[in-house]
Design brief:
This protein has 2 domains: 51 residues, no CATH class; 238 residues, MetI-like fold. It contains 15 helices and 2 strands. Strands 1-2 form a two-stranded antiparallel ribbon. The two termini are 38 Å apart.
Length: 314
């Protein structure tokens, strides 16, 4: 029995060596992407874990700084601000998901049902433009609309209503933030759903028309069932990035000390503490926490996407 097992293992070993020798050129070519992953992906992640356990100083560097174990994590979790920024992060991410998830689906169906292909292409091109605007441009547009002398306040003044501090108020911060984010990403988000809609058999729509089905009925019984897997997959993936979807780059432009209570998220707090106050170890601990939670959520979301939609990253 032992000789048989050794013989099988020897054959497997010879097979692997034979394949490696046969495809040696492909293995040599694979060295470049593997080296890229190690140097630019995995090595920085490892350094981040090391830095999170250090009391970092510029003089000592990552390896020469004092090792303090989990003290940075303890400081993070015992911070009075941590609960607030975690709550704000989750709230803004969920608001982005709720407010920005359904509109692209509706818009995709509207574009797909257009009879004129030329008008559809023109509409898509116009809708895609905001995606290519930087957040600086988006903020400049928001300023023109919502600042004290902006168009919105000018219109309110014409109606006899006093000007409102839209950009300096906690009350209006979230609507402006979420609204501008949805506007920027709305057109681009339709690409995935339009691609799914093109895979639906057009004969189903023709048969439904012959049977007297109206537009709403065709959407309900043909269009939506045809893109349900993509909808579920997209939803699960968005849930997996709930801690990183708050939009730090946008918030850094829109927020100010007057609305920190509702606008301060993990990314902005990390920017102020890690870079502003040079607490690099604490900043690394925050990043490790965010990445760890994100990894768990992605794994769970991927499993749910595979289960309910038959689609997943792996």
């Amino acid at each position: 029995m032992g000789e048989m097992k050794a013989l099988v293992q020897g054959k497997k070993k010879n097979t692997v060596l034979h394949r490696m020798k046969k495809y040696r050129i492909l293995y040599l070519l694979a060295i470049i992407p593997f080296a890229y992953l190690i140097v630019f992906r995995y090595w920085p992640i490892f350094l981040q874990f090391v830095l999170a356990t250090k009391n970092y100083t510029i003089k000592g560097g990552i390896w020469g700084s004092e090792f303090i174990g989990l003290d940075n994590f303890a400081q993070l979790f015992h911070s009075r601000e941590f609960k607030k920024i975690l709550f704000n992060t989750v709230r803004i991410s969920l608001l982005r998901l709720v407010c920005g998830f359904v509109p692209p689906i509706i818009l995709s169906i509207m574009l797909f049902d257009m009879n004129s292909a030329v008008f559809r292409k023109i509409s898509q091109s116009i809708l895609y433009i905001p995606h290519f605007f930087s957040w600086v441009i988006v903020y400049a547009i928001a300023q023109v609309l919502f600042q004290n002398t902006g168009y919105i306040n000018s219109f309110l003044n014409l109606l006899g209503i006093e000007s409102k501090q839209f950009l300096m108020s906690e009350r209006y911060f979230l609507p402006i933030l979420i609204g501008s984010g949805v506007w920027k990403s709305l057109g681009w988000s339709t690409i995935l759903y339009l691609a799914a809609l093109t895979n639906i058999n057009t004969e189903l729509f023709e048969a439904a028309r012959l049977d007297g089905a109206g537009p709403i009925q065709r959407i309900r019984y043909i269009t939506l069932p045809g893109i349900v897997p993509i909808i579920v997959f997209s939803l699960m993936m968005n849930l997996g990035s709930i801690l990183s979807a708050a939009g730090t780059e946008q918030i850094l432009l829109f927020y100010n000390p007057t609305n920190y209570e509702v606008s301060d998220v993990i990314g902005t707090w990390l920017y102020r503490q890690g870079l502003g106050k040079m607490k690099y170890g604490l900043g690394a601990a925050v990043s490790v926490f965010e990445s760890s939670v994100g990894l768990v959520l992605v794994l769970i979301s991927n499993k749910l996407a595979n289960k309910f939609a038959g689609l997943g990253i792996w």
